[in-house]
Prior knowledge:
With 689 residues, the protein is of the alpha+beta class. Among the domains are: 14-129, 2-Layer Sandwich (Beta-Lactamase), CATH 3.30.450; 385-554, Histidine kinase-like ATPase, C-terminal domain (Heat Shock Protein 90, 2-Layer Sandwich); 557-684, Response regulator (Rossmann fold), CATH 3.40.50.2300.
Amino acid sequence: MDQTGPTLDDFDERSVYRSLFAANPDALLLVDARGVIVRANPAAARLLGYTTGELTGLPVDALVPDAVRPRHANYRAAYAHQPRARPMGTHTELVARRRDGSEVMVEIALSPLQDQGLPYVVAAVRDIADFPRVRQALQRARYNEFIVQVGRLAVDTREPHELLTRVPAVVAEALGVDAVAVFLLEPDRRSLRVASTFGVSEVDAASWRCTNRPETPIGWVVAQAAPLIVADFAHEHRFDAQDRLFGDGAGSALGVPLNDRGTIIGVLAARANRPRHFDEAEVRFMETLSVLLATSLQRVQAEAQLSHAQRLEAVGQLTGGIAHDFNNLLTVIQGNLQVLEEHASLGADPSAQQMVAAASRASRRGAELTGKLLAFSRRQVLSPSRVNVSVLLHSLADMLRRTLDQRVAIVVDAPDACPPCVADAGQLESALLNIAINSRDAMPDGGSISFACRACPELPLDVAEELGADAAAPNGFVAIDITDTGDGMSDEVRERAFEPFFTTKEIGRGTGLGLSTVYGFVKQSKGSIRLHSAPGAGTTVTMILPCPPRDAGARARDRSDASPVEAGLKVLLVEDEPEVRAVACRYLRSLGCEVVDFGTADQALASLALQSDFELLLTDVALGPGMRGTELARQVQARLPGVAVLLMSGYAAETIESTGALAWELLRKPFDRAQLARAVARTVGTPRP
């Protein structure tokens, strides 16, 4: 008796192909030359939220989001003239619009049937929103946006209570957890107090066991100075049941130390009612926030201990370390965002692009805020160049006319014959913008802001006395006046206008760093600033800046006309922060460089015994314990006289100068790939010392 089952030949071929079409796990759409769906399988109906009947006869453009529909129509028309197979796995990722208006990231394969004599194209659509690489990229972008949000708050705030109150809410929103708390060590370092919470009642917070013992989760984090993940409290046996991280009811928890330069000052902890909620991505996010929080709390505490007369200098001493840590973080954030922006999987996803763009804008704001701290203490790294003041004022005025209140008139008196000044162009524009914004705020009902510039060959006596030796600029000075018709200032306010943190604005509308950063920038540029104001008479701010030597323009052009980076450039990279090192490696390799990287100077020097054909040394100035980047540069050049040296740093200018780093080309953190490329090109094209 024949026991074999039926074979393919026993079935009608048409029914077989219909069954294959219906059973395919990918969404399949059969589309005619007009772009109309003539058949859809059940998987397509499930993915797109229609029935198969509703999809039949529907234009395929209805499945495309409105924002990209014109581009899709053009692509479909071009494809109709030259149809070709396009398989999955080519990273051609799009966004499909469901029946309810929601969107889903998809990858699409196209199979034209014209070669089989049929006027159709089969589109296979696959949901990729759950692919790990896409999910992780979106998660990193989202976390980075929250990090920059906290970083901005950390730089802006003067009140530790405000920072402590807001951080738990940010963490809870970012991680989607049920409760967050900040614990701070008491002065005796034997116990911790609950400084702030989110999602926890005061009664529950008061009942927590906050002893600093390793037998408790919080005490373990402090003792080990390391993050702790409790994946599932139901199966956790390391700690006493009554000393759970957040009391009874916790499913899982994460705690990270608040570490300020090696000193543990507390713990940042989060609790989820669900088990296994936390992984390494959440640990990295929490560690980054803990650095920002710890550093900022220490800064605020130090500021509170300073007298009024010591404030500027003391804050200046703090800014170097804060700028270094924060600029390292921003380098990592911006580097990953730049890579993410270019990732093919997000190219057609408007929502993901918006998230990445928002995070990029926020990270740039963070860099600007760090720069303000350095500016008012006159410790920022400036890049002076020849600046055409007339062109700058006209350009700034055009921008202000588009962005300021339409009731504010902008007037410019900047003749082309006005001589140039020597200053950092970006910082000068920022200073002018700061003054203009203050003027706008002083005119709530409208008014006018006037910009004027003029040659100032002879300085007023008080300005000359203030500048001392710097008053002998060979080609004189340029005066820039910014005048408004606002309310003006009282004598008391005018006398304090340039003080850091002094502001007459209501809480939340100003940091008090605006005019103080302008003052610091002008003084560091070897110039002077004057303020004339009276109640009801408006305000005039005058910046007096030196003119450049006659040959400064030629030198500036020589410096800026750098050739592109040559492919195959052999680079020795030394950076003690692993994530910053990874970003720099990725940038250099994308520029065609061959990179060997190390975390310490000793490792880099030891490698020279095995490889000695390096053409460029790229090293951080501060390399943690041990040898500084400047000493490493001297030793490498002693062994390899032909090697070029490019230093990078997020520290303040005064700190950099004290190391002798200004003997080499310096790249300031945070930097992007284009800035690194220009610095490398300049360095390699510069004669070696």
